[in-house]
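Quick start: load a record and inspect it. Here is Methyltransferase FkbM domain-containing protein:
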Amino acid sequence: MYIYLFGTWEPDLSAFLRRRLHPGDTFVDVGANIGCMTALAGKLVGPRGTVVAIEPLPAVISELEEIVARNDLTNVRLVAAAASDRDHELPLYVGPSYNIGLTSTVARRGLHEQGRARAAPLGSLLTSQELATARVIKIDVEGAEDRVLAGILASVDALAADVELVVELSPRCWSDPQLRPIDVLRPFLERGFHVYLLPNDYAPWRYLWPRDVGAPQRLRDLAALERRVLRLDIVLSRRDADAL
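Running the structure step on this input writes:
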C-alpha cells in the first residue's frame, strides 16, 4: 500500500542502496519478502550485476517471482530457504494477510506455525562468487537476525573488504532472552566493522516526505547496544567515518 500511495518503501534504506549499488555489483536480500528491495537493487546493478533474493515462505515466493518477471529482472536468483546459523529445518510462523512481512522463523505472539523451511548459513546459500563479490547484504528476518549473523561469521573472511551489512535488529524477538545487540555484533566489531544507525520510520506521515532522507550515522557510544530494544536498524561497515 505504501508503494502504491507514495511510490517508495523504506525511503532511507532505498536512498542508501542507490548510493551504494552500481552496475555490476552483487546485492544479497535476506528476507526478501515480495521483493521491494530486490527489484530496486536489480535495476541499480543492471544486467551485469547479480541479486540473490532469499525467502522461505512459498506464498511470498510466488509474489516475488511475479515482481521479478514484471520488472524483467534477469539478474535475480531466487533461493527458497531461510538463512540461519546451521543446516536444519525451521518452522514458519506466518504473519497476517494484511502484513505478511511479519512472517518469522521465531515464535511470536499471534502467529501460528504454517509449515517448515530449509535453513542454512548464508555461505551455503550463496555461490563462492556471490559471497566474494557481495557489496551489500540486507537482512530483515523478523527476529531471526541473531542466527543469520552467527551463520555469516563462518564465512566472513570470504566477504569483500568493502561489503556492508544492512540489518534490522529485533532484540526483543530473539529466542535467547538474555542476548543483547552487543553480544551479536561484537564478533563483527572484532573483525573491523563499525556500527552505523540507519534512519527508518514506518509511520505513515514519514512517507509524506519521501525525499527527506538521512544517511547512516556512526554509533560511537556502544553502550546503546547493551539494551534489548524493540528495533534497531543498523549498517555494519568497515568504513571509518562519521556517516555513510
